[in-house]
Amino acid sequence: MSLIHEIDFGTPRSKSEKTVTLTIDGVAVTVPEGTSIMRAAVELGREIPKLCATDMVEAFGSCRLCLVEIQGRNGTPASCTTPVAEGMVVHTQTDRLKRLRKGVMELYISEHPLDCLTCSANGDCELQDMAGAVGLREVRYGYDGKKHPNPGLDTSNPYFTYEPSKCIVCSRCVRACEEVQGTFALTIAGRGFDSVVSPSMAEPFLQSECVSCGACVQACPTATLNEKSVIEIGTPEHSVVTTCAYCGVGCAFKAEMRGDEVVRMLPYKDGKANRGHSCVKGRFAYGYATHKDRMLKPMIREKITDPWREVSWDEAINYAASEFKRIQAKYGRSSVGGITSSRCTNEETFLVQKLVRAAFGNNNVDTCARVCHSPTGYGLKTTYGTSAGTQDFDSVEQADVIMIIGANPTDGHPVFASRMKKRLRQGARLIILDPRQIDMVRTPHIEADYHLPLKPGTNVAVVTSLAHVVVTEGLVNETFVRERCDWDEFQDWAAFVSDPRHSPEEVEKLTGVPADQIRGAARLYATGGNGAIYYGLGVTEHSQGSTTVMAIANLAMATGNIGREGVGVNPLRGQNNVQGSCDMGSFPHEVSGYRHVSDDATRAMFEALWGRPLDEEPGLRIPNMMDAALDGSFKGLYIQGEDILQSDPNTQHMAAGLSAMECVVVQDLFLVETTNYAHVFLPGSTFLEKNGTFTNAERRIQMVRKVMAPRNGYEDWQVTELLSNALGYPMHYNHPSEIMDEVAALTPTFAGVSFKKLDELGSVQWPCNEKAPEGTPVMHINGFVRGKGKFVITEYVATDEKTGPRYPLLLTTGRILSQYNVGAQTRRTANVIWHEEDVLEIHPHDAEQRGVRDGDWVKLTSRSGETTLRAEITERVAPGVVYTTFHHPNTQVNVVTTEFSDWATNCPEYKVTAVQVMPSNGPSEWQEEYEELSRQARRIAEPLIAAE
Ligand code: SF4
Ligand code: SF4
Ligand code: SF4
Ligand code: FES
Fold first, then answer.
1. Does residue 412 have its Cβ closer than 6 Å to ligand 3?
2. Ligand 1 test: best mutation among 210, 264, 418, most atoms within 8 Å of CB?
3. What average pLDDT does the segment 719-729 reach?
4. What lines the ligand 1 site, CB under 6 Å?
5. Ligand 3 binding pocket includes 765 (Cβ within 6 Å)
6. Residue 930: pLDDT band by 50, 70, 90 thresholds?
7. pLDDT, tens digit, for every residue of 366-406?
8. Most distant CA pair in the chain: distance in Å?
9. Is the pLDDT of residue 708 over 80?
10. Least confident of 502-506, 886-890, 906-910
11. What pLDDT digit, counting tens, does each position of 147-201 carry?
C-alpha cells in the first residue's frame, strides 16, 4: 500500500460543455472552454510549477511561478489565470521561463527559514517541491534579509498549528476559508512585504470565527498550517480511502497512516458527497478509536446490580445465546428482539435484522431511525413511492431557490452547508422555516430572503399555508401536475389547501409567522426557478412529522419542483448510515428495500434463501418493546451500537423497560449509558477497524475500509455471526462483500450493487440495478416510482403537548457542530473544547422575567421530568421558546421530553415539550446520582481498562 496522491489540477474544473483545442509544448489538447492553461497542461500530464494555485479554489495569480509563453502574445502570463483559447500555442519550458521562475523561487527561499530537515512538512512541502522543480541550486541574495512579520506560533487550535514564519503569503488558506468553507475567518493583514495571515481580528485561531474544518490546513503548501498529529507522528506513508462515520453527508476521506496509526484524515477530492471538503468531526475527531475508555473485552453479569465480570468471547456469546433461548422457551418466540444502529455498516445492520427474523423467528427489530427519520420513510413512500431523498448533493449547484425547513446545516451537515452557501453566494435565494435564528439566516455574504420563525409544532400549518398561496394565486405548475400526478387527488388537495382557514392571515394566528412572510416565501419558491427543499429533524420529530413530510412533497409536486437537477425534496439525514439502516430492513414491518413483511412473495424469497419461515406479522417498535417489557411479555434485547437510554425520549420509561428485562446485550465501543442496564457487554469496533458500506443522505453507497485491525478482536458483523451461530442459526460469511451480495440478491433496488462495482466507481446511488447499472443520482425523472404522484390531505392537528401556566415555554432540541448525538465519540476527543456541556438558550425577555442571568444554573422541568443546566441568554430563540442540545449524559435532556410521537411512525416528538425554567443552585438530585453511578461504573471498569 502506498500513499494516494491526488492530482492537483491547479484550478477548478470548468463546467462548460463547449470545448477548445490548443497546443501545449507541441501537443494538442482539447478541454472545456474556461479551463486555465495550467489545468489543460495537467490534463496533458505536464505540470507547470505553481505555488498560489490549487484546484480547490479559484486562481489568484500572485506567486508568478506558473508563467508561460503564448505564441503571438507579449509577455509571460500566469497560466493559472489565463484561460485557454481555440488554436492557442503555449510553451511551458523556455529558457526565459526557466530564468524567471528561478528568480521567483530565489526570492521566496531567501526569506524562508532554513530548517527543512527538522520541519514537520519535510518531504510533503510544495515549496520544497517547487524549488526542485525549477532547478534552484543557489540563492543570490543570501538568507539574512528582511523577513515577513512573525506574530509567533499559534497552537491554540487543538488540531493544527499556525507558524507564520513559514508563510509565503499565497492566500490559499484565506481563499479556502472563503470559497470552500464559506466562513471568512481569515484575512491577509498588512500590506506588501508586511502582509501576514490573520484569523479574524488578529486573534488566536481558537478565539476566532474559525470552525476548524481544516480546509486552510489542507490548502497550505508549506508547514505554516499543519496538523498537530503530523508534527507529532511524522508524515504518513500509506493511505486508504474510507467514509466518515459521523453524519449523513458521508464525506470520503483518505486515512493517511504510519503503520497502523492514523496520522491524519484528509478529505478525498474524488468523494462525490464532499468533493474534497470536511468538517471538524470527520477531519479531526477520530481519536476516540484509540481512547483509553474503549472497552475491548466481553463482560457478563447475572444482575445489573452485580459487578461486571470479564470473560472470553466464547463465554459471552454462549451466555447471551443461552439466555435468549431460555427466555424464548419460557416467554414465547416474541419475547426477544434486536436494535440495529445507524452508526454501523449496511452489512452489519442487515445481519442484525436477519438474526432477529431468522434466528429469533420474529420481526421485533427496530433502529434508531425510529427516533429521527422514520416519518421521511413513510411520507415520501406514500407520496412518491420511495423512502428516500430525491437528489444528489451536486444538484444544489443548479438550485435557484433553497428552502431549509427544520434543519441547521452548518451544525448538523456542515460540509453540505458549505456547498449550499457557495450556491447562495452565487445568487440563489434562501427561505428558512425554523423557530430559531440558525446561522444560515445571516452568515457572511448570505442573508435569507425569508426567515419564518414558526412556533414549534406548527410546521404542517405553515407548509400547508405556503401551498394555499401557490394554489389561490395561480402558481401551480399545471402541466407538471396533469402529466405526473393523480389529477383527481390533486383537485381534492387544491380544494383543501384553498380553504380560507389555511390562508397566511389565519395561519399567522396559530404559528406566529407574519402573513406577508408566508406569502412572499411561497411566491419566491413557486416562481424563482429551480426550487429545492432541504429538511431535517425539525420536520420529522413531531406528532405530525409524517404529515409535514407529505405537505412538503405536495408543495414540490404542485410547483413542478421534482424530477430534475436543482429541485427536489431532500431529507438531511442525521447519522452516517441512517439511510442504509432503513434500506437494510431494520424496521419491524419491512425487510430490505422497504417491502412489507406481510407480502407473501417477498417473504418467500427470503425464506428460500435463509431456510427459515418468516413471521408475517410486523414486530415491535422500540417504544412498544419497552411497553411490552413493563407488561412482562418482552424480556431480552440485543442492541448493536445504539445508546437508547440517552438517545430515546422519556428516559425514565426507557430505564424502567430495560430494568424489567432478563437479558440485555449491548454491543458498543464504550460503557454507554444503556450498559447500566445490560447483562452482557460485547465490545464493538470502530469504522477504522472494519470493512463494509455506509449509505448517505443522497442514497449514495460508499465503501468503509479497514485501516487497522479491530482492537476488540472482531468486526461487528462477525460478532453478530457468532451470536447467530450460537443461537443455532448458522451464518458463514468470509467477508462483508458476501453480505452485500446477499442484499443484492434479495433487494431489487440493490440488485446491481457489489463491492467490486463500488471499488470501480467509487460510489453508487440506489436504485442500482439492470435499469440503472451505475445508480440513480436524481429520482423520479420520467415519472414517480409509485406511478402517479400522490397528493395527500394534510390537516393540521395541534400537538397535545400544550403550554399552560405550569409549563409556559416550548423546548426544542438540536445539535452543535463539534459534538455528535449522544457524544459517546466526540466527547472522547479534543472537540470538548468547544462544547463542554449542554446549555439552555433562552430569550432575554424570558430570562429577565425569571431572574435568570447568563451562565446561571437553571432547572428545566416538564411533566416528564427535570434536569439542570446553565442558561445562555440569546435572541437566537424567540420569546416563549427555549433550546438545548443533547450531547452530554449528565444533562440527559430526554428526561424532559415526552411520550408523544408521530401518529404514523412513533417517531418521538423531541422538538416540542412544554417546560418551565427556573433559577437553580446546581445539578438536580438525579444528576448527582447519575454522577455517582458513572463514577461507580468507571471504578468497575478501571481494572479492566488498566489490564489492557
Ligand atoms: S479551519 Fe476552516 S474555518 Fe478555520 S480558518 Fe481554516 S478554513 Fe477557515
Ligand atoms: S498560511 Fe499557508 S496557505 Fe496561508 S498564506 Fe501562508 S503559506 Fe499560504
Ligand atoms: S460533514 Fe458529516 S460526513 Fe462530513 S466530515 Fe463532517 S461529520 Fe463527517
Ligand atoms: S500559481 Fe499561478 S500565479 Fe501562482
1. no
2. 210
3. 97
4. 176-177, 181, 183, 185-186, 210-216
5. no
6. low
7. 987 666 667 888 899 999 998 788 999 999 999 999 999 99
8. 92
9. yes
10. 886-890
11. 677 778 999 999 999 999 899 999 999 999 999 999 999 999 887 777 888 898 7
**What is the number of the ligand 2 atom nearest to the C-alpha of 172?**
3
Alpha-carbon span 93 to 364, nearest angstrom: 70
C-beta separation of 853 from 919 below 8 A: no
Ligand 1, atom 3: nearest CA belongs to which residue?
Answer: 210
Closest-CA residue, ligand 4 atom 1, reads: 50
* Cα 45 to ligand 1 centroid, rounded to whole Å: 31
φ, ψ for residue 281 (rounded to 5)? -75, -60
Residues with CB under 6 A from ligand 4: 50-53, 61-66, 78, 80
Q: Which of 524, 463, 467 is nearest to 498 (CA)?
A: 467
- Nearest CA owner, ligand 1 atom 8: 177
Ligand nearest to the CA of 250: 3
Q: Which atom of ligand 2 is nearest to the CA of 216?
A: 3
Ligand 3 in contact with 274 (CB < 6 A)?
yes
Ligand nearest to the CA of 247: 3
**Distance from the CA of 209 to the center of ligand 1, in angstroms?**
8
For residue 49, the model assigns a pLDDT of 96
| Residue 268 Cα to ligand 2 middle (Å) | 21
Band (pLDDT 50/70/90 cuts) for residue 65 is: very high
How large is the angle between the packed helices 459-472 and 504-511, nearest 10 degrees?
Answer: 170
pLDDT at 117: 84
What is the grid cell recorded at 157? Answer: 487550535
From 104-108, 323-327, 403-407, 466-470, the region with the lowest mean pLDDT: 104-108
Ligand 2 site-directed mutation target among 109, 127, 154, 173, most atoms within 8 Å of CB: 173
CA of 415 to the centre of ligand 1 (A): 12
pLDDT band at 33 (very low <50, low <70, confident <90, very high): very high
Report angle CA 836, 840, 844 to the nearest 5 degrees.
130
Indicate whether this model's pTM tops 0.85.
yes
Q: Which pLDDT does position 371 carry in this prediction?
A: 64
Is 579:345 a contact under the CB 8 Å cutoff?
A: no
Measure 185 CA to ligand 1 centroid, in angstroms.
Answer: 6
Cβ proximity of 452 and 535 under 8 Å: no
Q: Which residues 6+ apart lie within 8 Å of 671 measured at CB?
A: 293, 295, 681, 937, 941
Residue 855, number of CB atoms within 10 A of its CB:
10
Calpha distance 339→638 (Å, rounded) = 6
End-to-end Cα spacing for the chain? 29
For atom 3 of ligand 2, the residue with the nearest CA is: 220
Selected residue with higher pLDDT from 602 and 146: 602
Write out pLDDT tens, residues 909-924: 778 788 898 998 877 7
Q: State the cell numbers at 411.
A: 451544525
Share the mean pLDDT of the chain.
Answer: 91
Determine the Cα–Cα distance for residues 105 and 107; give it in Å rounded to an integer.
5
Q: Identify the pLDDT of residue 926.
A: 65
What three-state secondary structure class fits 266? Answer: strand
Whether 363 shows a pLDDT value over 90: the answer reads yes
CA 824 to centroid of ligand 2, rounded, Å: 35
Name the residue with cell 508568478.
64
State which of 130, 171, 180, 186 you would mutate to test the pocket of ligand 2, scoring each by most atoms of that ligand within 8 A of its C-beta: 171
Question: What does the angle CA 64 – CA 65 – CA 70 come to, to the nearest 5 degrees?
Answer: 80
Q: Quick one: which of 418, 429, 420, 525 has its CA closest to 470?
A: 525
Omega before 204 within 30 of 0, i.e. cis? no
Ligand 3 atom 6: the closest Cα is on which residue?
Answer: 279
Q: Which has more pLDDT, 920 or 218? A: 218
Q: How far is the CA of 210 from the centre of ligand 1 (A)?
A: 5
Which residue's CA is the nearest one to ligand 4's atom 3? 61
